[in-house]
Amino acid sequence: MKKIVLTFLLLASVISVCAQYRHWEHNIYAGNGLIAEYKGKEGDPSEGISFVLGYGLAYRFSLHWSVMPGVAWRVIGPLGESFDGADDDAFWFVDIPLLGRYHTGVGKRNWIFGVGPALSFCVRNETFYVDADPRSPLIHLDKCKAFTLGLQPTASYQFARHFNVGLDCFICLTDQKLHHGIASGSKYIHSFTVRMAFNF
Q: What CATH class has 23-199?
């Protein structure tokens, strides 16, 4: 009987502790960073800049764990010389990540690590421009696919009650280049962004 009572009290305390940390949290974040574009066998990788503005709604269901779906506007470019001409590439994406996050503690001065899949939709595209062949059938056709699947790892440090700073990455997992049955090569654009977040 004594063991049953002790077990019940232990379970009750665990449930109480878990319930204490269950809450919803809004996260608004913005940041700047760099991108790396991998073109497969077509050419050397190129670099550029990125900007991100996003919102995430996190559910903290225990002391150390939370899940956070969200939506973000991500802008990349310029990427330097285009792979089919001399123009610069600049794209806008709307990303929808779903992150599982681990917290080292509560309150300020703790680390938050997250990872999860991200759906990415191209909402501003670029078109092919072939300077060497003005009659190329690629001219004025979109370069980037409308949908991309990515992986989004994150790491941030909560330095104040409502603020954290960290690094967000978007690792492209699928070829983003539209070939139109003509163009060759591939296009994988990876983003690395240092961002500030306000959470409440």
A: mainly beta
36 pLDDT tier (thresholds 50, 70, 90): confident
For 154-163, the pLDDT digits (tens) are 999 999 989 9
pTM for this structure?
A: 0.79
Q: Are 67 and 23 in contact (CB under 8 A)?
A: no
pLDDT single digits (tens) 107-118: 778 999 999 999
DSSP annotation string for the chain: -HHHHHHHHHHHHHHHHHHHT-EEEEEEEEEEEEEEEE-GGGS--EEEEEEEEEEEEEEE-SSSEEEEEEEEEEEE---SS-TTSSSPP-EEEEEEEEEEEEESSSSSSEEEEEE-EEEEEEEE--BB--TT-TT-TTBTSB-B-SEEEEE--EEEEEEETTEEEEEEEEEE-S--B--TTT--S--EEEEEEEEEEEE-
**HEC letters along 179-195:** CCCCCCCCCEEEEEEEE
Per-residue pLDDT band at 187 (split at 50, 70, 90) = confident
Q: Where are the domains of the chain?
A: 23-199
Q: Which residues contact 160 (CB under 8 A, 6 or more apart)?
A: 108
* Tokens matching residue 79: 């990427």
